[in-house]
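In response to reviewer comment 3 from the previous cycle, which asked for concrete evidence that the modeling workflow produces usable outputs, we include below a single protein chain processed end to end. The sequence was submitted unchanged, and the resulting structure tokens are shown without manual editing.
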Amino acid sequence: PLPIVAPSSSDSARMQATTGSIAARLQVNSGTELIMAAAARLTFSQGITSIPRQRLIDEMKTASAYFKSTYVNNLSRYLHSLVRDGKLNEPSQGNFALTASSLKDLESRLA
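The workflow returned the following structure tokens.
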């Protein structure tokens, strides 16, 4: 089972959005940005703090206006880049979580 964190009332009110609408608000133009939009939705809206790789892919695909099949082919490279840049953590192999700084940044950008 995935760890669940109950979002605050302001988070849940703000984040009843789709990955596509979050991608639009964040002006997504790349695979790494779409990963961050998908992680934001899963974290803020679903309360999932450790996101399996396949769940990220599935969530990215729901943003059909932004998703490109090449993003899946390059996913490992994108994820390693996001971990290296301090935007995601990998708490266990194949599971990813937004870092504290990414949480703050996304909360302010989506407010």
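Residues 31-45 form the longest helix (15 residues). We consider this sufficient to address the reviewer's concern, and the full set will be provided in the supplementary archive.
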